[in-house]
Amino acid sequence: MEKKLRVLILNGSPRAKGNTALALKEMESVFGELGVEYEDILLGKLAIRGCMACGACSKLGRCVHDDIVNELAAKFEAADGLVIGSPVYYGSANGTLVSALQRLFYSTRFDKSLKVGASVVCARRSGCTATFDELNKFFTISSMPVASSRYWNNIHGGAPGEAEADAEGRAVARQLARNMVFLMQSIALGRENLGLPKEEPRAWTNFIR
Ligand SMILES: Cc1cc2nc3c(=O)[nH]c(=O)nc-3n(C[C@H](O)[C@H](O)[C@H](O)COP(=O)(O)O)c2cc1C
Fold first, then answer.
1. By CB distance 3.0 to 4.6 Å, which of 68, 81, 124, 163 could disulfide with 19?
2. Does residue 12 have its Cβ closer than 6 Å to ligand 1?
3. What CATH number should be reported for the domain whose range is 6-193?
């Protein structure tokens, strides 16, 4: 395999030194060890508006609101894998991240299939699995294989840095990164040796018919 693998990492938290960042740093240590390039982007402090369903992206191929989301699109297209990290806010991914992801996935037309997705969530106490499911849905609607680990990928901590004490959560994050790299490598080999799976023709039906 000639080309270096690349991973785009999105952190929904506003806290650069928060607990989600701590889990992502564990993943980054593995990416570094295995020679995978990565870029880590903190989204939570940015003013990212939600999708307004204007449909302009179907003609433009990008979001009509020309902000960080359009910058992320180019980075996502160039990546072999996408990691999404989110703090749990009221049992959900945080709002800024959700706004960014909905616009990113909806407004882009490039082929996301077989880019590997991985998500990791952080809560003081509860709401992790609902948030984990929420994030994984962006991958599974896009034919993106989802990397898994030894548990559902969560880490626990309230105040910034508290998750340092969650040795199990940190190990889950490192294992997630190892499994993700293996999947990306396997897909790259499969692409060379077997070719990509044939795409089924699109059908677009609503349940009212
Ligand atoms: C608006 C808001 C809502 C929150 N909701 C939850 C929650 O539903 N469950 C929980 O366990 N912690 C909740 N928390 C705590 C955060 O998940 C926790 O502080 C976490 O460490 C934040 O991650 P970060 O350091 O990466 O930002 C909430 C925090 C905020 C600011």
1. 163
2. no
3. 3.40.50.360
